[in-house]
Amino acid sequence: MLEVQGLCAGYGSSEVLFGIDLSVGAGEIIGVLGRNGMGKTTLVRSIMGLVRPSAGSIEFERRPILGLPPDVVARAGIALVPEGRQIFPNLSVAEHLSAFQRASPSGQTQWTPQRVFELFPPLQARRGHMGNQLSGGEQQMLAIARALVTNPALLILDEATEGLAPLVREEIWRVLAQLRNADHAMIVIDKYVQRLITIADRAVVIEKGRVVWRGTSAELGNDESVSARYLGV
């Protein structure tokens, strides 16, 4: 579904990524791990067209998308749940979902506002509230719901559980498990290794803009040296 090869990218004269390779198959979940500042978000921004890579290739469903504008990438079937949520403060929950709702490129409308309300019951109760009236957890739920109603083929989540209370964090993991059971392809960037390996098929670890480890979630869970070397504080 997604094939990233030899990706190099950065900001101005500062290079951040150095030859990243990443692939995602249909219905597959890939976990992306690494300490802060190692290039994970730059990778996501490069895929979404928010950063123009200096080298490499990106193909989505066998179509080149490297260098395309973000709106074209989104309409091709990739949705991003960005770090920091980026909820519109002056739009209600219902307005967020209405503004972003659309069919997939193939015409599917699996995800509707009503269905995401079933996935996130707290949003149903807060549907008339503005973005700035929501708690941090509710804003994160809305960010995921907003991405889902675009009916993407690939969902990318950048630190979707960061800064949340433990109970809310578990609610997000519950939803991601449901998406996994529905065979929804995802790239999940998160620091909670033990929770990530319960839903991801494979994982990659990025260190200083390079992939330094890749393997199955089972292999990651059994190799404590990976966490100690690349993920510890």
Structural features:
233 residues; alpha/beta; Rossmann fold; 4-stranded antiparallel beta sheet; 35% helix
Total strands: the figure is: 10
Q: How do the strands line up in the largest sheet?
A: 6-7-8-3-9-10
Low-confidence segments, given as residue ranges, are none
CATH superfamily of the domain at 1-75 and 190-233: P-loop containing nucleotide triphosphate hydrolases
Beta fraction of the residues? 25-35%
CATH top level assignment of the domain at 1-75 and 190-233: Alpha Beta
Q: Topology as H/E string?
A: EEEHEEHEHHHHEHEHEEHH
Helix coverage percent: 25-40%
Structural class: alpha/beta
Outline of this structure?
With 233 residues, the chain is of the alpha/beta class.
Topology:
Layout: E1 2-11, E2 14-24, E3 29-33, H1 40-47, E4 55-60, E5 63-64, H2 70-76, E6 78-81, H3 93-100, H4 113-119, H5 121-125, H6 136-148, E7 154-158, H7 166-181, E8 185-189, H8 193-196, E9 202-207, E10 210-216, H9 217-222, H10 224-231
Parallel strand pairs: 3-8, 3-9, 6-7, 7-8
Antiparallel strand pairs: 1-2, 1-4, 4-5, 9-10
Helix pairs in contact: 3-6
Question: How would you describe this protein?
Answer:
The chain has helices at 40-47, 70-76, 93-100, 113-119, 121-125, 136-148, 166-181, 193-196, 217-222, 224-231; strands at 2-11, 14-24, 29-33, 55-60, 63-64, 78-81, 154-158, 185-189, 202-207, 210-216. By secondary structure, the protein is an alpha/beta fold. It contains 10 helices and 10 strands. It has a domain at 1-75 and 190-233: Rossmann fold (3-Layer(aba) Sandwich), CATH 3.40.50.300. The mean pLDDT is 94. The strands form 2 sheets. A 6-stranded mixed β-sheet has the order 6-7-8-3-9-10, sandwiched between helices.
